[in-house]
């Protein structure tokens, strides 16, 4: 008797479950339209970069002079119009004034849409150890700018405006190659417009590049060699956000019932689904479950009559 009382609810449950499978629309996976944020761009600028080797007479050694002025990395802004460095054994141990200018600024900004850097020098004088009274170079205005925007070609520009004086001599710069200035008993400077360079994602610009080789034989300095770069800017474009997915599945709920109305598929729509529709399989499964339920009911009745 106990077993018969448990068969009855089981049969009813199977029957109701079959009806639920028959009438419920099948579930489909829908492709979501999510987006992934891109990385920020990069930018940097410096108004002066010097890499010099200073030879000392009394020590017969080279002392490196590696320095930068107003070097920034985005996001930042710097403004300083005078830079002095100290080198042991040079100019009586006094600080060497490498750069003085009316304006010396560098600025860099970057976010997920744009990266930009700019360096500017106005009325600037550059000195090297051993030549405290004679400027290595004097410029009225030099500026460099680099702009990298997501999805666009990077842009770089540099300008040298006004007079340029090297070792006391006014020079005319040429874009076709370096300009060389030589002063007897002082040395030689090779000066060139550094120009710009760009790739698909980066940009860089430097207004002036000087290759220095001077022999002042003064203040214990035998020779100064190296490179000086004025007004340098560079950037790297942001990666940008990934485009949103436009692919979506066109899902139409299906039902065993015919007719029209919300959530009910017409006979024509059912016909359009063809063999690829899961409706026949669902219906077939439901009929199997109904058969099992009917068999269970028959067995239950026989148990009661016996």
What do you see in this structure?
Helices cover 18% and strands 44% of the residues. The N and C termini lie close together (11 Å). It has three helices and 14 strands. Strand 12 (187-198) and strand 13 form a beta hairpin. By secondary structure, it is an alpha+beta fold. The strands form two sheets. Strands 1, 2, 3, 11, 12, 13 and 14 form a seven-stranded antiparallel sheet that branches. The model is unreliable at 1-37 and 242-276 (pLDDT under 50). Helix 1 (2-23) packs antiparallel against helix 3 (279-305).
Report helical residue fraction. 10-25%
Biggest sheet details? 7 strands, antiparallel
The protein's oligomeric status is single chain
Summarize the helix and strand pattern as letters: HEEEEEEEEEEEEEEHH
Please work out how many helical segments DSSP would assign: 3
Summarize the structure in short.
The protein has helices spanning 2-23, 267-273, 279-305, and strands spanning 42-56, 61-69, 72-73, 76-79, 82-85, 96-110, 114-126, 137-149, 155-166, 169-171, 179-183, 187-198, 202-214, 221-236. It is α+β, with helices and mostly antiparallel strands and 306 residues long.
Name the features:
single chain, 306 residues, alpha+beta, 14 strands, elongated
List the helices and strands and how they pair.
Blueprint: H1 2-23, E1 42-56, E2 61-69, E3 72-73, E4 76-79, E5 82-85, E6 96-110, E7 114-126, E8 137-149, E9 155-166, E10 169-171, E11 179-183, E12 187-198, E13 202-214, E14 221-236, H2 267-273, H3 279-305
Antiparallel strand pairs: 1-2, 1-3, 1-14, 4-6, 5-6, 6-7, 7-8, 8-9, 9-10, 11-12, 12-13, 13-14
Helix pairs in contact: 1-3
